[in-house]
Amino acid sequence: MKKIFLFVAISISFGNLFAQSTTYWQQHVSYKMDVVMDAKKYQYKGKQELVYTNNSSDTLRRVFYHLFNNAFQPGSEMDARLQAIVDPDGRMVNKINVGGKESKESRIKILKPNEIGYLNISNFKQDGENAATKTVGTILEVILAKPILPNSKTTLTLDFDGQVPIQIRRSGRNNLEGVEFSMAQWYPKMAEFDFEGWHTNPYIAREFHGVWGDFDVAITIDKDYVLGGSGYLQNPNETGHGYQDVGNTVVYPKKTKTLTWHFVAPMVHDFTWAADKNYIHDVIKGPKDVDLHFLYKNNPKIIDNWKALQPLMVKVMAIYNNNVGNYPYKQYSFIQGGDGGMEYAMCTLMLGNGTLEGILGTATHELGHSWFQHILASNESEHPWMDEGFTSYIEDLALNEITVKKKKILLNQLIKPMLN
């Protein structure tokens, strides 16, 4: 099998497309964002500059952004879906008693104003000229000041004002394990435009699809928080990130009221981060000199499991490299947060209070998504088999190899004394 597996996956995914057309293109984005967090209120303000390159043969007169936070409001499409379907996601509902019968109530429906999520956009400009905008649910439509011609680029700027919702699905604050900020899909995110057109599906807690590009993100937050996520930290000397070590655990300076964390993530299609005042942060070397980061709560009940997880993930990444292809970046972060396990660019958010076997399975699966979907950049919403199917396969491949090796070692330990 070896690395031919990735070639087969790509051939299956895009064979029909290339058969129909010999001209392939994809759009490109370059984000620069400066964000200031008000951690006490769970609110933030930011400025975004986005250089958008239109590599298609179409002239674009409109563009669209995702405003995922807006899904976490009473009356949203996500809320309506929870109230309408017979078997909603158990993480997103509360069990209640109605007339002596158990029923399920949408957690979004009962959110208070200071618990909802929102993302408000203002001061939108294209190359310095005002552009008209309209927000409908989780989608922002922009009527451009001037068309974006084929094979040309434009600079789009905006201000955004957000509130982090109570943790309900993937992103949010104060998850069930006490992680304060799980910042996934938190910024105005350009929708994908490809051979199918614009992908502007409303957010109802399904999967994602994004535009390849570069992210330059500065996050200013109270000094007591430790951050991890997508990209490479550019100012470790200011944050203490990776400079003051005790063993392999990073110690952070606490000299100012706030710290600014500056991350750069090249050629990815998303940017995610998490923050908590009580994170332990370990860094170890993985295969091909990749830094593997582990951020988890300073909870005595889970520390041993997270320490034991670290050398296992070095082995898992090596197995993926050998069987699929080398991981293309120089860092990956396993971060306790979110509401289960979810793949993001160069990192995962995952629950971490379970058994070692449980967190190993989650970490192995989510790391597998770095190849399927993040390298392939497939549309998870339309073609879930491409990411979940292949990832589940290589996850089982890796766990089986680790387990078999463990059994062999144990067998040798039992037999050798008998032979002696």
Give a quick rundown of the structure.
The chain has helices at 4-20, 77-84, 236-239, 300-323, 356-368, 384-419, and strands spanning 28-38, 43-54, 60-66, 93-98, 101-106, 118-126, 129-130, 132-136, 139-148, 152-163, 172-173, 181-183, 189-190, 193-194, 197-198, 213-222, 226-229, 232-233, 244-246, 249-251, 258-268, 273-276, 279-285, 291-297, 331-336, 341-344, 347-350. It has 420 residues and is of the alpha+beta class.
How are the SSEs ordered, and which strands pair?
Blueprint (H helix, E strand, L loop, with lengths): L3 H17 L7 E11 L4 E12 L5 E7 L10 H8 L8 E6 L2 E6 L11 E9 L2 E2 L1 E5 L2 E10 L3 E12 L8 E2 L7 E3 L5 E2 L2 E2 L2 E2 L14 E10 L3 E4 L2 E2 L2 H4 L4 E3 L2 E3 L6 E11 L4 E4 L2 E7 L5 E7 L2 H24 L7 E6 L4 E4 L2 E4 L5 H13 L15 H36 L1
Parallel strand pairs: 1-16, 24-25, 25-27
Antiparallel strand pairs: 1-2, 2-10, 3-9, 3-13, 4-5, 6-7, 6-10, 8-9, 11-12, 12-22, 14-15, 16-21, 17-22, 18-21, 19-20, 23-24, 26-27
Can you tell me about this structure?
The structure is a single chain. By secondary structure, the protein is an alpha+beta fold. It has 6 helices and 27 strands. It has helices at 4-20, 77-84, 236-239, 300-323, 356-368, 384-419, and strands spanning 28-38, 43-54, 60-66, 93-98, 101-106, 118-126, 129-130, 132-136, 139-148, 152-163, 172-173, 181-183, 189-190, 193-194, 197-198, 213-222, 226-229, 232-233, 244-246, 249-251, 258-268, 273-276, 279-285, 291-297, 331-336, 341-344, 347-350. The chain has an 8-stranded mixed sheet. Strands 23-24-25-27-26 form a 5-stranded mixed sheet, covered by helices on one side. The chain has a 4-stranded antiparallel sheet with strand order 8-9-3-13, with no helix packed on it. A hairpin with a 2-residue loop joins strand 8 and strand 9 (139-148). Helix 4 (300-323) packs parallel to helix 5 and helix 4 (300-323) crosses helix 6. The longest helix has 36 residues, at 384-419. It is globular, with a radius of gyration of 22 Å. The relative contact order is 0.12.
